[in-house]
Amino acid sequence: MEMTSLIDMLLMFIAAGFGWWANNTTKEVKRLEILLNRTREDYATRGELKEDMDRVMEALHRVEDKLDRILSSDRL
Predict the structure, then answer these.
(1) Cβ contact 44:52 at 8 Å
(2) What contacts 44, CB < 8 A, 6 or more positions away?
């Protein structure tokens, strides 16, 4: 009878350890899914980045043209 109780307790501890591990793994997977979804929402898409860069380049070209006009008028 004594040996059966020990084996039952050992199996109970193994089952409890597996349950604890499964619970923690599930929580971590849910946390990672939330972080992944936030990453998708927070960061710009490739198209948005290209549009922003095009606007910045257009502004820089306007500034460059203005500087060229100023420098060319000073030389005369």
Answers:
(1) yes
(2) 52
Q: How many domains does the chain have?
A: 2
Together in a domain, 15 and 38: yes
CA distances from 54 to 40, 45, 62, 75 (A): 23, 14, 12, 32
pLDDT tens for the chain, 76 residues: list them.
688 889 999 999 999 999 999 999 999 999 999 999 988 778 878 888 999 999 999 999 999 999 999 988 876 5
Q: Verify that 35 and 50 share a domain, yes or no.
A: no
Domain that holds residue 59: 45-76
- Which two structure tokens, joined as six digits, stand for 57? 């380049």
